[in-house]
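Lecture notes, continued. The same structure-token format from the folding unit now serves as the input rather than the output. Read the line below as a description of shape only.
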């Protein structure tokens, strides 16, 4: 009966949630989702039938919500987002003309989007030191050239990004690296959710979301903290539409009142497409870096007003008394100064949480990409544990992922600090995998992604294999990264298209380009793991194939087999079904992956909820509170906290110069109206941001925005020039994507 009532509620029009009475939001500033369909149709000219098959027969390679074709497991409706439409061109474009690579001096002046548009990489290409460009070589020559550089495990590193990389590639790559005597294999999870991995593992015993997307719909409250799904996980907005229809309230904690989280037009839903949907009911503005002050203040209110679920806490957790004592010692003045919010605003969110019978807490890189990202996550976990919002319907902790390969990448063991299954790198765990695989596994953690760049810069690394990604765009201080890349004796770039880091000349070494297949091209199909822990099969899709492109699992295992021929029989696979069988043996909670073989096949490890009934996968079965100290943030007079934000892009792949939600161009410097008036800055004024230490600068143009005073935002990756490459969190080693800077108006 309840299910029938909910279905009727979803069908009924509800003007209370409408964003506008103007049909289709005419005149409102918002992305034109229907225009995106037109652009996608134009971009795949000549391959439209293949593009349609990718949309309807493949698993989405965009964000980590994980659709099968254009459907998912949460509701029986069409799911299709702009990110996936923009990726169609990459997945269907023809090969580039390799003669363009003979002299790359002209290509070096091109933007990344222009390089991608040249077409797919079709053949292995080699550039030696001093040469103007690349020449085509065969696969055997390429592999034989690279293999000798990978025999000393202490002198090379491997990095894999999450641009559609499936579980099979991650698993085979990390196994190959460990056969070569190294744990220096890392992936994009390092620079987005590694603090979540660390803090969740310590506090609840599992480094994944504890709930499912289904839990959003019908929850009393969803709290987004440093997260903007309207930009980064747009398919999620349909879930929020249905959640609002079911009576769910949405709160947002952020430095910027994101327009897409205020009002959103879901294009595939008639009511929302016509009238839009009001998403956020309660907005709480906090300073960049002030989240701990705000969250601890909310917890302090919960404790002082008797809204902690004391019985649940006593039965299912440990460490609460230490947390109670810690927040009691933090004054309201300290909490307000750090957070930028008032005591009353903290009380308001505490009231919402205290009155809610169920709640889901969602966060993303606004929380993690700080030097104290782990503590940010611990503060969120403390709130959830204090109310028992774990392990039951419509409740949970959700570190929402922005890319389809991030969750699986870490769980496959493509992680310098973790083995398959997320096990820490210890002697005991290394011996377990040595017994399983038949070769010695190193017992010391390897170099993380940022450590690899440091080692290359210091001359302590000889070779780097980069599968996808672009360190020049994703890491702080591009000039530092460029110098590091140039000092390597060998760089191997495995990718489907060109990127700017491939064009960095080596001072005294070789640069190899190896063409990879997309997930849709791999014989035997592949899998991805979504944010909700759903392992989803994506079959090979019939269509054109590019030159001599190979699956990455085959490239990595063949490199290792040639470097360690005595282990070749233990490294080579006959195909992806054999890799999935190996994954199932290595990662027990991935039980069932070996049986996935048809479109739509999936298994959700752990079921709908982790920690069911308050039983945690920790040694004592209890969740762990952790006291969180206030970070020592000081902002010198006249300076601002600057955060990097995402616009019309997927990862570092920028799709448009202008963001449809707020009109910001890529050079925009978002500033509050209060600060702009105080400094006499008008929209469009040219300004320079300079780090407080003076050595880094960014130039842009003013855009007034609903931002907390004292804070600025600039786009990533353009704003990376302002960031200090040495600032990282202590445990996860994530870079700090924020800076302290002054702002100066430039002459007209």
């Amino acid at each position: 009966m309840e299910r029938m009532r909910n279905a009727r509620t979803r069908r009924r029009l509800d003007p209370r949630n409408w964003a506008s009475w103007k049909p289709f939001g005419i005149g409102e500033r918002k992305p034109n989702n229907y225009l995106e369909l037109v652009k996608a149709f134009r971009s795949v000219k000549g391959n439209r039938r293949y593009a349609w098959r990718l949309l309807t027969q493949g698993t989405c390679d965009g964000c980590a919500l994980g659709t099968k074709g254009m459907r998912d497991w949460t509701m029986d409706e069409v799911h299709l987002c702009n990110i996936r439409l923009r990726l169609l061109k990459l997945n269907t474009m023809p090969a580039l003309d390799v003669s363009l690579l003979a002299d790359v001096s002209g290509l070096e002046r091109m933007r990344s989007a222009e390089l991608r548009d040249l077409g797919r990489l079709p053949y292995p290409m080699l550039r030696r030191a001093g040469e103007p460009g690349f020449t085509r070589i065969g696969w055997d020559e390429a592999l034989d050239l690279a293999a000798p550089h990978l025999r000393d495990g202490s002198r090379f590193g491997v990095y894999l990004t999450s641009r559609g990389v499936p579980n099979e590639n991650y698993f085979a790559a990390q196994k190959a690296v460990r056969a070569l005597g190294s744990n220096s294999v890392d992936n994009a999870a390092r620079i987005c959710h590694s603090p979540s991995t660390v803090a969740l593992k310590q506090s609840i015993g599992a480094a994944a979301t504890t709930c499912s997307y289904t839990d959003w719909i019908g929850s009393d409250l969803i709290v987004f903290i440093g997260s903007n799904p309207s930009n980064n996980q747009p398919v999620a907005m349909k879930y929020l539409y249905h959640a609002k229809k079911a009576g769910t309230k949405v709160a947002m904690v952020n430095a910027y009142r994101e327009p897409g989280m205020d009002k959103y037009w879901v294009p595939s839903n008639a009511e929302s497409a016509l009238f839009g949907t009001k998403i956020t009911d309660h907005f709480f503005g906090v300073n960049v870096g002030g989240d701990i002050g705000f969250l601890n203040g909310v917890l302090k209110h919960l404790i002082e007003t008797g809204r902690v679920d004391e019985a649940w806490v006593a039965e299912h957790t440990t460490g609460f008394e230490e947390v109670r004592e810690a927040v009691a010692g933090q004054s309201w003045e300290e909490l307000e100064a750090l957070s930028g919010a008032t005591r009353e605003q903290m009380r308001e969110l505490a009231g919402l949480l205290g009155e809610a019978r169920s709640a889901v807490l969602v966060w993303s890189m606004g929380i993690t990409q700080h030097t104290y990202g782990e503590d940010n996550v611990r503060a969120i976990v403390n709130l959830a544990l204090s109310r028992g919002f774990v392990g039951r319907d419509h409740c949970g902790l959700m570190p929402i992922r922005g890319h389809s390969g991030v969750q699986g990448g870490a769980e496959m063991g493509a992680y310098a600090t973790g083995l398959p299954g997320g096990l820490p790198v210890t002697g005991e765990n290394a011996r377990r995998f040595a017994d399983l695989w038949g070769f010695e596994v190193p017992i010391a953690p390897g170099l993380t992604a940022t450590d690899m760049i440091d080692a290359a810069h210091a001359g302590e690394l000889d070779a780097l294999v980069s599968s996808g990604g672009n360190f020049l765009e994703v890491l702080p201080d591009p000039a530092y990264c460029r110098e590091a890349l140039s000092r390597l004796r060998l760089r191997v770039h495995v990718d489907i298209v060109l990127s700017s880091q491939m064009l960095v000349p080596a001072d005294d070494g070789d640069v190899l380009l190896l063409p990879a297949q997309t997930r849709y091209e791999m014989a035997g199909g592949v899998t991805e793991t979504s944010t909700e822990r759903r392992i989803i099969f994506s079959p090979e899709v019939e269509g054109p194939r590019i030159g001599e492109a190979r699956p990455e699992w085959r490239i990595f295992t063949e490199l290792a087999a040639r470097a360690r021929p005595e282990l070749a029989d233990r490294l080579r696979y006959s195909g992806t079904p054999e890799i999935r069988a190996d994954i199932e043996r290595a990662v027990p909670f991935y039980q069932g992956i070996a049986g996935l073989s048809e479109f739509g096949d999936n298994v959700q490890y752990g079921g709908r909820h982790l920690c069911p009934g308050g039983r945690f996968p920790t040694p004592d079965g209890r969740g762990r509170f952790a006291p969180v100290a206030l970070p020592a943030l000081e902002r010198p007079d006249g300076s601002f906290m600057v955060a990097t934000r995402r616009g019309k892009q997927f990862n570092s792949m920028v799709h448009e110069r202008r963001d449809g939600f707020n009109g910001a161009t890529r050079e925009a410097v978002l500033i509050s109206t209060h600060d702009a008036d105080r400094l006499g800055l008008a929209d469009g004024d040219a300004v320079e941001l300079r780090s407080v230490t003076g050595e880094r600068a960014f130039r842009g143009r003013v855009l007034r925005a609903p931002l907390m005073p004292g804070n600025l935002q600039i786009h990533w990756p353009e704003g990376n020039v302002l960031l200090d490459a040495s600032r990282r969190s202590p445990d996860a080693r994530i870079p700090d994507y924020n800076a302290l800077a002054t702002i100066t108006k430039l002459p007209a």
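Point for the exam: The radius of gyration is 25 Å.
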